[in-house]
């Protein structure tokens, strides 16, 4: 099939698609005289979309220096193009797949969000690409795969088969359809008026090995290659985190890290940022509050924290110090003064160059000239303080030293103020104080991150069953509390599978409790293997288990339950024969609360036991 013949099918209602107001917004982007007022009127036609845009702009992704309270503020803050593409992404996420009910749409968008936040975090670390644009680009970078699923579900095995890698998936799609998901994504982005450089990044094949690249370069080809590498990094992290394949080792991922020119401290910071920002953004998009592969991502962060801490605890004289001065001669004088004292000197002559260096090299001490071209030293100082907070120690240098100017510099956010010409010993003494303060702040940051990690670990332990590794009853309750309102609001399918091991007391009495624990662990492992990624699997009692299936009706849940029942009977080894009884229910409008869903599954389970056990029974559907 040619892609030109496939694209019109996407408009027949089988796929999520942009609303009329969003289509009008994308057309508005093509006008040279497009006004923000006209865009705001179109967006306000959808109050829910308007509210979500304002929430997203206020999320950690965009790091606004002040709260955004109106749509006009949002448009002014991040620009018309990003807001339009944000509206497009929100439209598509809220869509349904009537032609592919078994496809796990929640997992698809969760993986896309993980990719988008990872790419945004990486863009923040290396600079030279607007992080807000990269987030929306990452969120929609696999949209072609979703369109293949909903319009050719019989040919989408490569997408739904978690065992296939990206190259295998593309080869399968090319063979079956004549094009792959990324070619379809590029075609859709052209229809939606995305920047051509983003479309080329989707179409490009990553270069192996990657050539050296100056991230501060404004050369179009360099910027394209930079975006290609950010996209490849996001895809690899997502594939690594969401894959159930056990041989996806941390060492393999670390080798990839080196090819992305990202040093260990930057990569640890990127993973930490991804994990910490997930919950706030996922809530806005009605996605699970924990990212897919959270434990694997946390293991990466933990493995890199010690390396990063070692990097931070090296002698302070090895850490870079940034000189920001428009005069080459002044920078050269300072460099000759400071390098013999052991300082690693970085230099910037402009605002853009300064921000690129800070994002890439993370210097903590800044020597900033008052008379900077373009915006002036004081205004740049305020921008640095807003963007990076108290992490930077800023010393303003000026040839016109007086008390009023010193007060003005301190009010602008400077830590200190020195007049030129600068006495060498006096400057070195000031820098010694700066290093001690920076080291103290770094130790506080490290301690806070470790406390946050320990808190997350304790929360995770409190939600898990120690024997099987599945969620416990508390974890199941929290999962249901999160997804119940969304399922009601969007009228999406939600099913519950209740499982009970048949005659478990006899197993304990006849074979002993140690063997009973092995049976529980084996059944729990089988449940985890059979269930879909994104569903909740839990042990909720002694021998009772539960699966909560998102975007899954009762018929599909019953099919999954039957596969599980058959798999449990095939558990081999030194264990006694094991069977299970299963009850299945689905959310319907007659259910007033979560307990009604669980009660219906429990009643179906009780019926299965009464009918002789080792069977699946569905709760009767209520009109």
Automatic annotation (TrEMBL):
Q: What is the lineage of its organism?
A: Bacteria, Pseudomonadati, Pseudomonadota, Acidithiobacillia, Acidithiobacillales
What protein does this entry describe? Diguanylate cyclase
Q: Which UniProt keywords apply?
A: Nucleotidyltransferase, Transferase
Q: Which domain of life, per UniProt? A: Bacteria
Q: Does the keyword Transferase apply?
A: yes
Top-rank EC class of the record's enzyme? transferase
- E.C. number(s) listed in UniProt: 2.7.7.65
């Amino acid at each position: 099939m040619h892609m030109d013949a496939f694209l019109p099918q996407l408009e027949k209602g089988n796929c999520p698609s942009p609303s009329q107001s969003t289509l009008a917004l994308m057309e508005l982007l093509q006008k040279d005289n497009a006004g923000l007022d006209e865009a705001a009127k179109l967006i306000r036609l959808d109050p829910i979309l308007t509210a979500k845009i304002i929430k997203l702009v206020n999320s950690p992704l965009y790091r606004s220096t002040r709260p955004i309270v109106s749509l006009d503020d949002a448009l002014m803050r991040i620009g018309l193009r990003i807001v339009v593409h944000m509206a497009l992404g929100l439209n598509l996420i809220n869509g349904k797949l009537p032609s592919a009910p078994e496809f796990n749409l929640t997992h698809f968008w969760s993986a896309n969000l993980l990719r988008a936040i990872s790419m945004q975090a990486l863009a923040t670390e290396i600079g030279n690409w607007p992080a807000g644009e990269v987030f929306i680009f990452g969120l929609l970078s696999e949209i072609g795969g979703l369109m293949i699923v909903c319009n050719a579900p019989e040919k989408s095995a490569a997408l739904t088969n978690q065992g296939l890698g990206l190259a295998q998936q593309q080869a399968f799609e090319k063979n079956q359809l004549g094009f792959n998901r990324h070619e379809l994504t590029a075609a859709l982005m052209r229809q939606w008026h995305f920047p051509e450089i983003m479309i080329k990044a989707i179409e490009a094949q990553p270069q192996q090995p990657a050539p050296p690249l100056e991230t501060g370069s404004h050369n179009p080809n360099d910027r394209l290659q930079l975006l290609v590498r950010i996209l490849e990094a996001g895809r690899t992290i997502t594939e690594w985190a969401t894959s159930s394949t056990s041989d996806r080792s941390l060492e393999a991922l670390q080798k990839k890290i080196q090819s992305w020119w990202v040093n260990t401290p930057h990569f640890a910071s990127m993973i930490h940022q991804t994990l910490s920002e997930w919950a706030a953004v996922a809530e806005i998009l009605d996605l699970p509050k924990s990212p897919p592969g959270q434990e694997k991502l946390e293991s990466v962060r933990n493995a890199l924290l010690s390396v990063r801490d070692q990097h931070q605890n090296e002698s302070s004289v090895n850490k870079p110090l940034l000189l920001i001065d428009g005069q080459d001669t002044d920078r050269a004088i300072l460099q000759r003064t400071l390098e013999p004292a052991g300082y690693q000197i970085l230099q910037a002559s402009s605002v853009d160059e300064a921000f690129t260096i800070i994002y890439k090299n993370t210097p903590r001490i800044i020597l900033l000239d008052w008379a900077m071209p373009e915006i002036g030293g004081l205004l740049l100082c305020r921008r640095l303080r807003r963007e990076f907070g108290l992490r930077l120690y800023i010393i303003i240098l000026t040839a016109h030293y007086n008390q009023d100017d010193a007060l003005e510099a301190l009010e602008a956010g400077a830590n200190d103020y020195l007049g030129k010409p600068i006495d060498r010993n006096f400057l070195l003494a000031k820098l010694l104080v700066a290093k001690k303060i920076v080291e103290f702040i770094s130790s506080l940051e490290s301690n806070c991150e470790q406390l946050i990690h320990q808190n997350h670990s304790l929360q995770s332990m409190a939600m898990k069953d120690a024997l099987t590794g599945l969620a416990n009853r508390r974890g199941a309750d929290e999962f249901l509390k999160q997804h119940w309102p969304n399922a009601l609001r969007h009228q999406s399918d939600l099913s519950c599978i209740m499982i009970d091991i048949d005659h478990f007391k006899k197993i304990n009495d006849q074979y002993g409790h140690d063997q009973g624990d092995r049976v529980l662990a084996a059944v729990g492992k089988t449940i985890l293997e059979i269930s879909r990624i994104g569903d909740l699997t839990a042990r909720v009692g002694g021998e009772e288990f539960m699966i909560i299936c998102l975007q899954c009706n009762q018929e599909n849940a019953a099919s999954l339950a039957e596969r599980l029942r058959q798999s449990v009977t095939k558990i081999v080894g030194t264990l006694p024969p094991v069977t299970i009884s299963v009850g299945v229910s689905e959310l319907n409008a007659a259910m007033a609360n979560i307990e009604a869903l669980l009660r219906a599954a429990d009643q179906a389970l009780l019926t299965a036991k009464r009918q002789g056990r080792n069977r699946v029974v569905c709760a009767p559907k209520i009109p």
